[in-house]
Amino acid sequence: MTAVVVFDLDGTLIDSLADLAAAANRMLSDQRLPALPQETIRGFVGNGLPKLVERVMTHCALDPERHSELTQLTLTHYNAGACDRTTVYPGVVGALDELRKMGCVLGICTNKPEAPARHVLSELNLLTYFDAVLGGDTLETRKPDPAHLHASFDALPSVGPRLFVGDSEVDAETAQRAQVPFLLFERGYRKSPVSALPHTLSYDNSAALPDLVRQIVQDEALQARPQKD
Question: What DSSP state is assigned to residue 81?
Answer without folding.
Answer: S
